[in-house]
Predict the 3D structure of the following.
Amino acid sequence: MKTPFLDFKIIATPEASAGRDRCEGDGKKQVLVVCQAAQANESLLEFLGRILGAVQLDPREDILLYVITPAKPISLSGIRRDFPFEKAILFGAAPAQVGLQFAPPPYHPVEHAGVHYLFADDLQDIYVERQQGKKKRAAALWKALREMFPERLGS
């Protein structure tokens, strides 16, 4: 039986442009960090700096911080063409929102096509939980970061 052409769901992919205006940092260690625009406030960026510092990454020099919005999905493959990265930490971004066709569980680093991905909850959610004296998300994040960056922690 022949299937009619285009008799299936088409998945739109985000624009391939990296949008340098939404990026911060030099990316010297080829680490991409993605967070939502709403999370790009001073206290959350300081919190992110402490998280990255725990794995010996400088937010201004070692990473490329890419700020996204729900209305403007991105293509990680497009970013990778312009800014090669080997590791990506995504806070509050759904895989489809960044142009990926697989959905690993949160806090479980996975490798795909030469890139190690780590999906985590919104940075805001992790921050609020820590402010309340709880650490379930932060502990899961720390465990995943240790797995993702063993060379930086002497493990």
Summary: The chain has five helices and six strands. The chain has a mean pLDDT of 83.
